[in-house]
Amino acid sequence: MRPAEIWPLLVEAHLVFSKLFSSMIPSKTSAPFCDQALTAGPASLARGVLAFLGLCASLVFLCASPAALAIDAPPPQGNLETLEIVTASGTHEFSVEVMRSGPQRERGLMFRRFLPQERGMLFDFATERPVTMWMKNTYLPLDMIFIGRAGRVVGLAENTEPLSEKIIPSGAPAYGVLEVNAGTADRIGLRIGDSVRHPLFDK
Asked: What residue ranges do the domains of the chain occupy?
């Protein structure tokens, strides 16, 4: 339960308790307080107070629970597959999540707050064609590596701007896109034409 969902419940509980408590207090037109006290009694008041405190304690527990605090936690990650990039500096191995369905490709790395250095996300577009990407709801700066059907790098967008809705084109027909942490392409000396090894691409 999110904090934003808990406050309305607290307000509602407060209103219920206030109504219960006010019903035990005489008005100018009501019977004498001693008569009402005989009707409501301290036991009813005690039960109302305990019920209210119990509800408050439950809501506080929900607020402090891991589920409530995990609002910004990354979504569950899929199975990791090995991918290699061969550059002039050598062979560099990455563990990647592969996004194959439309909903998976649409979400991508959105809302992730952390990506290990040798990890990445590979988008499978199933056909070789010009593709476009963006950084909407993506908090991590990324390098986007556009890869042709034959497993060669055909385009590169480095250090993309987090949360930007600017369209990032592949620049050439691409079969897949690999997203890695910003600075990775420069670190491994990646160049257009370098080879990417993964079962997704022709060998």
From this structure: 3-69, 80-197
